[in-house]
Amino acid sequence: MVKLIVAIVCCIVLTTPMIQADDIYTSKYDNINVDEILKSDRLVSNYFQCLMDNGACTQEGDLLKKLLPEAIKSDCAKCSEKQKNGVEKVIRFLTENKSDLWKQVVAKYDPEETYSQRYLEKLKKAKV
């Protein structure tokens, strides 16, 4: 669960650092290479520390921290398809490779695991 939230956070931070309008997130950062970020333990750790309030945040990280609770609760309703794909990629990565980080993110942003379970179910269905 923590991986899902961390993944969502990373994707949102990287792909939607600003709100363009009330109904959608900006596409300003849609060209960020999420794969390259996920390949870097240093970058993953930096975003994680930001989200957990244990380290400095970039502007994108600050925005991600701000938007993450809403994005989780709304099932990324304001995300573009590209952003949703990035979120899915991050969640898969975290749940499969960084489960310890995932658990911590879920504990902070979805302590009752209400929303993270929904995301995990979607990923399972998509994987089939």
Automatic annotation (TrEMBL):
InterPro entries: A10/PebIII, OS_D_A10/PebIII_sf. It comes from the Eukaryota. Gene3D superfamilies: Insect odorant-binding protein A10/Ejaculatory bulb-specific protein 3 (1.10.2080.10). Keywords: Signal. It holds the Pfam family OS-D. The keyword Protease does not apply. Residues 1-21 form the signal peptide. The keyword Signal applies. This is LOW QUALITY PROTEIN: ejaculatory bulb-specific protein 3-like. It comes from Sipha flava. The gene is LOC112685499.
